[in-house]
Specification:
The structure holds two protein chains of two kinds. In chain A, 51% of the residues lie in helices and 13% in strands. Chain A is globular and about 65 Å long. In chain A, strand 7 (187-190), helix 8 and strand 8 (224-226) form a beta-alpha-beta unit. Chain A is α/β, with parallel strands linked by helices. In chain A, strands 4-2-5-1-6-7-8 form a seven-stranded parallel sheet, sandwiched between helices. Chain B is α/β, with parallel strands linked by helices. Chain B has a single domain, classed as Rossmann fold (3-Layer(aba) Sandwich), CATH 3.40.50.280. Helices cover 41% and strands 23% of the residues of chain B. Chain B is built from five helices and five strands. In chain B, strands 2-1-3-4-5 form a five-stranded parallel sheet, with helices on both faces. Chain B is globular and about 35 Å long. The chains are: A alpha/beta, B alpha/beta. Chain A binds chain B through residues 14-15, 18-19, 21-22, 25-28, 84-85, 88-94, 96-97, 100, 103-104, 109-112, 114, 116, and chain B through 1-4, 6, 25-26, 28-39, 41-43, 45-46, 49-50, 52-55, 82-84, 132. Strand 3 of chain A pairs parallel with strand 2 of chain B, so a sheet runs across the interface. The structure holds cobalamin (B12), guanosine-5'-diphosphate and magnesium ion. Guanosine-5'-diphosphate binds at residues 54-60, 95, 98, 147, 191-192, 194-195, 228-230 of chain A. Magnesium ion is lined by residues 58-59, 95, 144 of chain A.
Chain lengths: 330, 132
């Protein structure tokens, strides 16, 4: 059944893609066979991140940008992430409210996702969802992060171009500019340029970019765009900025370097996750974790020794070997 | 690893009565569901496209302006056309009781009027939603 889904997704089935995304969110085993089949068909789409503080206008901008992109005939996928409640595990996903004028375009696919406790401004499955939309045939994928503060910068692990959205009147701009989020911008967007203070913010951001250029030589200097998302003002210019960043990436070879780096990180992250899962399962089910914790509490054992012994033992254990043999045989 | 219940809360029609829909969206989120609120003035086509893309387990329709007898069956019909047959369809708002039968016959799973305790709605969804 999951094999059928892969074929359907490659033919453009929104429904099959939607179901696979749910499986990925649930970490349902059925997702992985499907993803194996899709993987060779990924890597084609261009991925754009839209990040910034809550209420900055990210959803409205995403909507407007998608419309601009559609004019050139490109198909668009949108992933919009909102936070889950740490108390109830539920989530109110409100980004679609701002994307209603995209709703009946069959070449647009919008998926709302909850963070489900994952930090960093993203949902855990977001990178996989990007692959699904890519295989589905979307040419450009827009990812709206949750409203972020300072160091939720996981978007750079997924996006080719990251747009940081700033708005006037959100307190001390210079203060917020110290934060990690300023470092990740490939394109700055000053939204709500209809509000007082936009010009001042613009000047501050430009000054900051200039200062950074003195501190560290950069090949790419992030352009600053002013937009009024609710009136679709400045969106063509924003798209041009993104396109020129893309051009820079391709011409400088950075595009390949970045994606290679990302692929490497992703592979390590996945191996890490699976190893941890297997070891943990074994420790918990055998009761050895409990026994070890008892000893830790009584200070008869220290966690540093436990860590080393566990890893050494795991690597030489028959179970680990058996898995290895199975893998090399198949 | 059981998945969360995913719900679309939509308000068809041209009026601005969104309190009930917003309230229900919050109540269901607080009950642990992931609720996509789509906002006002949704056409049946928009609602069904959202249900498909979001892989919704539940679609909630709120109507206070008297358009339920047109919009609700239309949503049901489009859902069927897309093959979204196992999605729970619930409605609410200002709906005269004499319309309940008609709406259920046309494929709505339940209708909840004003004053319904929200716990009753949450319980209904939990009991009747499809298993993934
Ligand atoms: C508040 C209100 C307004 C507010 C709306 C504010 C807002 N943002 O929602 C304002 C003042 C703007 C307003 C305006 C109008 N209103 Co008005 N309004 C009401 C009023 C008094 C209460 C509605 C409400 O918010 N209830 C509270 C919520 C929480 O309850 P609820 O929506 O019923 O939801 C409960 C259940 O129905 C159910 N439920 C609701 N939705 C859903 C969805 C799902 C999936 C589920 C499971 C359950 C569910 O669960 C909830 C909890 O129990 C009603 C009268 C009434 N007693 O209902 C009239 C009423 C709805 N309004 C009415 C009218 C006519 C108007 C106006 C046209 C008046 C005018 N001539 O200007 C305008 C239209 C404006 C516009 N552009 O749309 C009429 C509609 C008549 C009809 N059906 O034909 C009503 C019924 C009053 C009347 N008796 O005439 N209104
Ligand atoms: N005045 C003004 N309001 C805007 C602009 N862009 C968005 N908004 C409003 O700001 C609010 C938050 O927008 P939203 O896109 O949901 O922000 P998000 O939380 O960053 O996704 C909404 O009420 C929008 O209508 C703008 O350029 N100017
Ligand atoms: Mg948003």
């Amino acid at each position: 059944m999951s094999v059928e889904y892969a074929a359907q997704i490659l033919e453009g089935s929104h429904r099959a893609a939607a179901r696979l995304i749910s499986w990925l969110e649930d970490e349902d085993e059925r997702a992985y066979e499907c993803m194996r089949q899709l993987y060779p068909h990924t890597g084609r789409a261009y991925v754009i991140g839209i990040t910034g503080s809550p209420g900055a206008g990210k959803s409205t901008l995403t909507n407007g940008l998608a419309r601009v992109i559609r004019q050139s005939g490109l198909r668009v996928g949108i992933v919009a992430v909102d936070p889950s409640s740490p108390f109830t595990g539920g989530a109110l996903l409100g980004d679609r409210v701002r994307m209603n004028d995209l709703a009946d375009d069959p070449d647009i696919f919008i998926r709302s996702m909850a963070t489900r406790g994952f930090l960093g401004g993203m949902a855990k499955a977001a990178a996989d969802v990007v692959k699904v939309l890519d295989a589905l045939g979307k040419d450009v994928i827009l990812i709206e992060t949750v409203g972020v503060g300072q160091d939720e910068v996981d978007i750079v692990d997924v996006a080719d171009t990251t747009c940081v959205v700033l708005v006037p009147g959100l307190g001390d701009a210079i203060q917020s500019m110290k934060a990690g989020i300023m470092e990740i911008a490939d394109v700055f967007v000053i939204n709500k340029a209809d509000h007082a203070g936009a010009d001042m913010l613009n000047a501050e951001v430009c000054a900051r970019i200039e200062m950074d250029a003195h501190l560290r030589k950069r090949e790419w200097s992030a352009p600053v765009n002013k937009t009024v998302a609710v009136e679709s003002v400045g969106l063509d210019e924003m798209w041009l900025s993104i396109e020129s960043h893309r051009k820079y990436l391709l011409e400088s070879g950075k595009f390949y370097d970045n994606r290679r780096e990302r692929t490497s990180r992703e592979a390590l992250r996945m191996i890490h996750g699976e190893l941890f899962r297997v070891v943990r399962e074994q420790l918990e089910q055998s009761g050895r974790l409990d026994a070890a914790v008892e000893k830790l509490m009584a200070k008869k054992l220290d966690p540093y020794t436990l860590m080393r012994d566990t890893v050494t033992e795991w690597l030489s254990s028959s179970q680990c070997k058996r898995r290895h043999d199975e893998d090399t045989q198949s | 690893m059981a998945g969360k219940i995913k719900m679309i809360m939509a308000k068809p029609g041209l009026d601005g009565h969104d309190r009930g829909a917003k309230l229900l969206a919050r109540v269901c989120a607080e009950a642990g569901m992931e609720v996509v609120y789509t906002g006002l003035r949704q056409t049946p086509e928009m609602i069904v496209a959202a249900a498909e893309q979001e892989d919704a387990d539940v679609v909630g329709l709120s109507s206070l302006s008297g358009v339920h007898n047109y919009f609700f069956p239309k949503v049901v019909e489009l859902m069927k056309q897309k093959g979204l047959n196992d999605v729970l369809l619930v409605g609410g708002g200002i709906i005269p009781e004499e319309d309940y039968d008609f709406l259920k016959k046309s494929g709505m799973n339940a209708i909840f009027g004003p004053g319904t305790p929200t716990t009753e709605i949450v319980d209904f969804i939990r009991t009747n939603v499809r298993k993934r």
